[in-house]
């Protein structure tokens, strides 16, 4: 009997036309096939060429990840699909705003932990703080976990953004032109 294929998390960058309905089509591909999106970010990256970048964190077996990439690549507004998890070294970061409501010793402890995590205080009242924290998802998860017993009140997270390390771009933005696939 064969051991089941391991499920792994992958970060996929997708360069698409910046037009209405594109994000809905990408999300529809995932929901229609029962794939889960763990994190999703999207923003325009080149206004002159009307291009946006979607960064998706998803999990699956290697076969499922390959299916996802192939199906994304077939969508008309998609120019390129890059699996940053296997493409080579990359950086992943997330931004979180974390609100903690506390007084006394718990307030002091929240400030001490925030300093250790390099979180910035971006708002304060006599009863609460809002901390801004950037870093790997695991760092943010750890900070949120530690803030729970200290009065965690609210959390807002951006989702993962990722980029390849070094000089190599996802695609050459200088030669990228609308309507064609990039490789």
From TrEMBL:
Coiled coil: none annotated. Pfam families: ACT_AHAS_ss, ALS_ss_C. GO terms for biological process: isoleucine biosynthetic process; L-valine biosynthetic process. The keyword rRNA-binding does not apply. Keywords: Amino-acid biosynthesis, Branched-chain amino acid biosynthesis, Transferase. Pathway: Amino-acid biosynthesis; L-valine biosynthesis; L-valine from pyruvate: step 1/4; Amino-acid biosynthesis; L-isoleucine biosynthesis; L-isoleucine from 2-oxobutanoate: step 1/4. It comes from the Bacteria. Its EC number is 2.2.1.6. Residues 11-89 form the ACT domain. CDD domains: ACT_AHAS (cd04878). GO terms for cellular component: cytosol. One of its GO terms (molecular function) is acetolactate synthase activity. It catalyses: 2 pyruvate + H(+) = (2S)-2-acetolactate + CO2. Belongs to the acetolactate synthase small subunit family. Catalyzes the conversion of 2 pyruvate molecules into acetolactate in the first common step of the biosynthetic pathway of the branched-amino acids such as leucine, isoleucine, and valine. Dimer of large and small chains. This is Acetolactate synthase small subunit. It comes from Futiania mangrovi. The lineage of its organism: Bacteria, Pseudomonadati, Pseudomonadota, Alphaproteobacteria, Futianiales.
């Amino acid at each position: 009997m064969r051991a089941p294929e391991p499920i792994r998390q992958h970060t996929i960058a997708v360069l698409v036309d910046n037009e209405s309905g594109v994000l809905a089509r990408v999300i529809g591909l995932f929901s229609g096939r029962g794939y889960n999106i763990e994190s999703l970010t999207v923003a325009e990256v080149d206004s002159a060429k009307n291009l946006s970048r979607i960064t998706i964190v998803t999990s699956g077996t290697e076969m499922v990840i390959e299916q996802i990439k192939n199906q994304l690549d077939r969508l008309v507004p998609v120019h390129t699909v890059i699996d940053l998890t296997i493409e080579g070294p990359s950086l992943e970061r997330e931004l979180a705003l974390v609100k903690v409501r506390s007084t006394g010793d718990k307030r002091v402890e929240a400030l001490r932990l925030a300093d250790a995590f390099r979180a910035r205080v971006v708002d304060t009242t006599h009863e609460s703080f809002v901390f801004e924290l950037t870093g790997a998802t695991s760092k943010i998860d750890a900070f949120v976990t530690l803030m729970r017993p200290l009065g965690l009140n609210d959390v807002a997270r951006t989702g993962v953004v990722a980029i390849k390390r070094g000089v190599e771009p996802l695609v050459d933005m200088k030669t990228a032109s609308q309507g064609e696939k990039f490789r």
